Amino acid sequence: MTSGNQTGTAASVVLLAADEYREQVAILMYDKTAAIAIGVGGAAAVADTGISLRFIGDSVVLYGEAARGQINILGNGGKVSYQTGPVVPNCQGSVT
What we know:
The protein has one helix at about 65-70; strands at about 5, 15, 25-30, 35-40, 50-55, 60-65, 70-75, 80-85. By secondary structure, it is mainly β.
């Protein structure tokens, strides 16, 4: 399992290199300086296309083939955290 933080730039940059053994990756936006666009499978991230994180707390979990390929981000100053490996879901309210 790996984790880290990344700041988006005005050009698409690699968040995680391809890994044929990776099964899951969670990406969470924690700074809303700019929206974060996400490109999967080695595709460049493109603004306002595909997966986009726009607000603090927005997140996405990628599984299988989408998680194994290269993951790119775009977002001039927006910041994300990522974690690979099993992800524990966030539960709100009472659990009975």
